[in-house]
Design goal:
This protein is of the alpha+beta class. It has a domain of 201 residues. Helices cover 63% and strands 8% of the residues. Strands 1-2-3-4 form a 4-stranded antiparallel beta sheet. A hairpin with a 3-residue loop joins strand 2 and strand 3. Helix 1 packs across helix 2, helix 1 crosses helix 7 and helix 4 crosses helix 10. The protein is globular and about 60 Å long.
Length: 302
């Protein structure tokens, strides 16, 4: 994989991936990643580190499996970036590694799966029993509830001041990558003119996963409530793998009018997870991008 290929947000396409981390931005390339953040002194502090060997392994070439592995490792990378950013801004030096790191990821995923998958499944099963709904209508109601919960959740947390700043850094990350891909000069003034949405955003992946779950779960036959919940858990890796490949495929075919129409809902949902960044936020995103690019040049094999 050559320079300019991202992961997770980049989805192994000719682009760089990134994400907002509290008061900073993480940019991820093919061989390394960089985290840029504001220190209490207002100066930009940058941390770089090489990516694990898994990003260059044969797994990256295996459809569906690569999505699961990259998403899991990407979560760990994001959690470490959060810790680095928080430590820089608070002056603390607690490290989130090993068991503590993956325990945190597991708890976060458990909460998300419980809220967005198991809860709608339980409510839909109860509605089928009480109101005599057919299995098809019960599955459709479950999917609509799942999608509604996702949208309402993203909309609600966007009112929290800290989350609004995270969403603003998210917008800065998107604008920086959009500007780079357009060949524009990476200055705050130039970058600010580019869109807040990006086709390979993690928010798009979430919406795709939820929509695919509506289709797949609607195809399942009747089953007791406990089997219904177990199938939702068992299908999560399948859904994630399909959603990853779908997002990857659409990002590679943006020259098609049909594909651009297909991803409009994904771009629309990103309006809930991005905000217009300030000039100093754009400076942080640009600094992270330049640091990652420089580290890529040094880390790339000959």
């Amino acid at each position: 994989m050559g320079e300019g290929h991202g992961s997770l947000d980049g989805l192994a396409l000719p682009s760089y991936g990134g994400q907002a981390v509290i008061e900073g931005v993480m940019m991820r390339g093919a061989f390394s990643c960089a985290v840029a953040m504001r220190a209490p002194t207002s100066e930009i502090v940058i941390h770089t580190e090489p990516l694990g060997a898994i990003y260059r392994s044969r797994i990256k070439k295996i459809p569906f499996l690569r999505g699961l592995v990259m998403l899991w490792d990407g979560l760990g990378l994001g959690m470490r970036a959060l810790t680095i950013s928080a430590n820089t801004q608070t002056g603390e030096h607690e490290q989130l590694t090993g068991f503590k790191l993956y325990a945190t990821i597991t708890l976060s995923l458990s909460f998300a799966i419980g809220l967005f998958f198991l809860f709608p499944a339980a409510v839909a099963h109860l509605a089928e029993s009480r109101f005599g709904w057919s299995l098809w209508w019960g599955n459709v109601a479950e999917g609509i509830m799942r999608l509604s919960l996702l949208v309402v959740y993203l909309y609600a947390v966007g009112f929290l001041p800290n989350i609004r700043r995270v969403f603003a850094y998210h917008g800065a990350e998107h604008q920086t990558i959009n500007a780079f891909e357009a060949g524009a000069e990476l200055t705050p003034e130039a970058v600010a003119t580019f869109p807040l949405e990006h086709t390979r955003c993690g928010t798009s992946f979430l919406l795709t996963l939820v929509l695919i779950s509506i289709v797949l779960f609607s195809m399942l036959g009747p089953m007791p409530w406990y089997e219904r919940l177990l199938t939702r858990l068992a299908m999560m890796p399948v859904l994630a793998g399909i959603a990853y490949e779908y997002t990857r495929w659409t990002a590679a075919h943006l020259d098609s009018v049909w594909v651009r129409s297909m991803i409009r809902p994904n771009l629309a949902l990103q309006r809930l997870t991005t905000r217009r960044p300030s000039a100093d936020m754009l400076e942080v995103a640009i600094a992270a991008f330049h640091a990652m690019r420089e580290d890529e040049r040094q880390a790339a094999p000959v």
